[in-house]
């Protein structure tokens, strides 16, 4: 293998401080549109400042700088194409970003680089400089600008428009918690989020941010492995605002994700790394908690469904009436942004369909590949399905502890590790039963 091709991504809010673009240099203006009028540069976070102002309270530099970092990472992840890498996958990215108060984040440089490497599979080198965008002044409450009602909110919860996050919100509200729901307001996602939120009954508010990365040439990388860093950064901002308004010492951040997807153990040996996402893996969330603690972000990250399968989440959802109303209006597909339709055959879709089958309901979702038996005859579309069938067939003869550790380090605590093993096995059996029903396994 030859040397990796290094791509520099330079992020700044002042356009004249950005270099000219070249094959190996990508200039990105953050938090502004004026750069496009002057020269050919990429942009990100154009509407983010407006969203933050609507929180109605001042945001500390540490949380704001985290969002700047996260948006810069998203820019690099989106604009640096994987097909330029020597192996077609692992990119080497030098990311230069200016922060308002960089010193505290300079101390976390190595931790951040390690977390990003784990999350995306790339080699990251962060150059953190001073001179970044200042945290914006909030809109006053009761001004002509509509601000978010944070009074009485007691936690934050990620809210993507997916099935797991819908259950997370339903359960919190049913338990009389009052969450601030945190969303990416990407085109397409937003309509699902709005529909689900409209069916929730109880006290909650919503905070949405649109990263809106716009590249120079129009083409972007589709894998978006670092999206969860944005989610956590937006959540830290929201949690800071909730804590300020309600005088909380620490704010809980709920990350609703079933244990099987969270672990995301590789289904086959070739899926270690390139095809195994780690967006809510326990190791990544633990790494981010350590970074939060080190910089003084008083947020406690918790996945309440770490040891539940998706089917168990559905079966145990605390408001089945609301769940029934929203289940067909949630998105689980890893590929749906390409066609605005859930494919029905990717790993997340298969796990979703298996869970809904376990619940015993009929959903109205129109999958592109509804008939999985027919999909198995289609060489161009059966990779995920084939991989999950191979994994199920080797379940009884495999070292499960070693298998689930292939996607990342897990705790050495034997009790917790056994819980990881159990949820992985139960989740795979859930899929097994669905594929038997589909006529694919016996």
UniProtKB/TrEMBL annotation:
GO terms for molecular function: DNA binding. Transmembrane segments: none annotated. The keyword Transport does not apply. InterPro entries: QatC, QueC, Rossmann-like_a/b/a_fold. The keyword Membrane does not apply. It comes from the Bacteria. Keywords: DNA-binding. This is DNA-binding protein. It comes from Chamaesiphon polymorphus CCALA 037.
């Amino acid at each position: 293998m030859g040397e990796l091709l290094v791509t520099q991504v330079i992020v700044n809010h002042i356009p004249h401080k950005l270099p000219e673009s070249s094959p190996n240099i990508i200039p990105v203006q953050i938090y502004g549109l004026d750069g496009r009028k002057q020269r050919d540069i990429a942009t990100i976070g154009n509407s983010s400042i407006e969203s933050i102002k609507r929180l109605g309270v001042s945001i500390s530099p540490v949380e704001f700088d985290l969002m700047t970092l996260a948006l810069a990472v998203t820019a690099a992840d989106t604009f640096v194409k994987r097909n330029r890498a020597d192996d077609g996958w692992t990119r080497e990215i030098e990311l230069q970003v200016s922060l308002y108060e960089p010193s505290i984040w300079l101390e976390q440089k190595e931790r951040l680089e390690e977390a990003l490497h784990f999350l995306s599979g790339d080699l990251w080198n962060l150059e953190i400089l001073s001179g970044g965008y200042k945290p914006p002044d909030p809109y006053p409450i009761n001004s002509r600008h509509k601000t978010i009602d944070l009074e009485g909110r007691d936690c934050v919860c990620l809210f993507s428009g997916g099935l797991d996050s819908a259950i997370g919100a339903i359960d919190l509200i049913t338990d009389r918690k009052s969450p601030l729901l945190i969303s990416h307001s990407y085109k397409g996602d937003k309509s699902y989020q709005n529909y689900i939120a409209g069916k929730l009954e109880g006290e909650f508010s919503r905070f949405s941010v649109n990263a809106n990365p716009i590249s120079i040439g129009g083409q972007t990388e589709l894998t978006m492995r670092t999206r969860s860093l944005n989610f956590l950064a937006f959540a830290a901002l929201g949690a800071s605002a909730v804590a300020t308004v309600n005088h909380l010492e620490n704010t809980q951040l709920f990350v609703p994700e079933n244990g099987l997807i969270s672990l995301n153990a590789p289904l086959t040996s070739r899926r270690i790394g390139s095809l195994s996402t780690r967006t809510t893996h326990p190791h990544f969330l633990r790494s981010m908690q350590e970074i939060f603690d080190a910089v003084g972000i008083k947020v406690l990250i918790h996945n309440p469904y770490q040891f539940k399968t998706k089917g168990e989440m559905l079966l145990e959802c605390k408001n089945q009436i609301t769940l029934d109303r929203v289940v067909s209006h949630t998105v689980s597909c890893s590929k749906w942004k390409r066609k605005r339709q859930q494919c029905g055959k990717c790993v997340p879709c298969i796990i979703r369909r298996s869970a809904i089958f376990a619940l015993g309901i009929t959903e109205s979702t129109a999958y592109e590949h509804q008939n999985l038996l027919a999909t198995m005859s289609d060489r161009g579309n059966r990779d995920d399905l084939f991989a999950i069938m191979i994994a199920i067939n080797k379940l009884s003869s495999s070292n499960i502890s070693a298998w689930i550790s292939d996607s990342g380090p897990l705790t050495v605590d034997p009790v917790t590790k056994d819980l990881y093993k159990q949820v992985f096995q139960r989740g795979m059996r859930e899929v097994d039963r669905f594929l038997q029903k589909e006529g694919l396994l016996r």
